[in-house]
Amino acid sequence: MIRLARVPLDRWSALVPALALVLLAFTWGRSLPSGLVALVACFLAGAVLAAVHHAEVVAHRVGEPFGSLVLAVAVTIIEVALIVTLMSDGGDKNATLARDTVFAAVMITCNGIVGVCLLIGALRRRLAVFNPEGTGAAFATVTTLAGLSLVLPTFTTSKPGPEFSTAQLVFAALASVALYGLFVATQTVRHRDYFLPVTQQGEVLDEEHADPPSARTALISVGLLGVALVAVVGLAKGVSPTIERGVAAAGLPASVVGVVIALLVLLPETIAASRAAARDRVQTSLNLALGSAMASIGLTIPAVALASVWLSGPLVLGLGASHMVLLALTVGVGILTVVPGRATPMQGGVHLALFAGYLVLAVSP
């Protein structure tokens, strides 16, 4: 579990979300000049870091694996809100935004975050050790959700193009919710021990390394976490036109916007997972990474399916050929990584190579 000092809430973590919310109130719905965009970006980064802090406080109070679940759901709410709000503003030009962002989240978590954490854990202890039962269940769920929601639409024939028909979209949404709910029940109730950190000898660790925060402190963090998430969503929406103009001016594909959004919203996960790996809690890191990938699909697809009722533009979910190859490689490599329950720096490097390949193809398809 991520260690936290037994001190009251840091002042910065309470002040930054409040100031970010005030800035959001003054900038909402307005065209922002470049100088103000820089200020908004600074507060956006601060709100993200504050969200990480408060999610970790709550996580330390409730313990593992509930703590990983708290942060995964929290950052996915940011992603869902951003996707839906940007799709409602963009019309046909944002038809692929949900697909691009969800696939980016899968690549970032399953290759980027997993690769970094395995590398950190293996360099620290020669071997990164984790529980293959829990990690395997999480990875299998991510693979199934990605296949049902992102691969199948490319091959269906009810509608032209890589789109689902209404009935197919309803099925994908319901299946996503059902699988995510089943996994959460497995992770937190029936097989909680599968998702706890383990020692180098494979023994389960179920103790804390510091006294948990008080109930009052945890409740305050819950409230401030909500404020920080609202600020992140609102400020990110404010700077998104600048991101879109920058991507267009650089001559990059429109899908890069989805990559930027995913990188932004997964920054809290990346920081928290890296910290956990550095403290020899690789299982916690994998819970965070794969839990985020799962929540990204399991919550985003139902949300955009519901939003499509009032969105006028098409909803393109099917992946192209190169992205399906990357997903297939990720699944194959992920299986070989998970099954032994331990990894060397080599496995971390392989995942990072796949992530680098994804970034290269994102900017130069």
UniProtKB/TrEMBL annotation:
Determine if Membrane is one of this entry's keywords: yes
| Transmembrane regions listed in the UniProt entry | 12-29, 35-54, 66-87, 102-123, 135-155, 167-185, 218-236, 248-267, 288-311, 317-339
Is the keyword Ligase assigned to this protein?
no
Which InterPro entries does this UniProt record tie to the protein? Alkaline_pH_Ca-Antiporter (IPR052946), NaCa_Exmemb (IPR004837)
Can you name the source organism? Streptomyces noboritoensis
Q: How does it sit in the membrane?
A: Multi-pass membrane protein
The compartments listed are:
Membrane
The protein, known as: Calcium:proton antiporter
Q: Domain Sodium/calcium exchanger membrane region spans what residues?
A: 36-188, 221-362
Q: Which UniProt keywords apply?
A: Membrane, Transmembrane, Transmembrane helix
Starting at the broadest rank, the lineage of the source organism is: Bacteria, Bacillati, Actinomycetota, Actinomycetes, Kitasatosporales
Leader sequence range is: none
- Pfam families (alphabetical): Na_Ca_ex
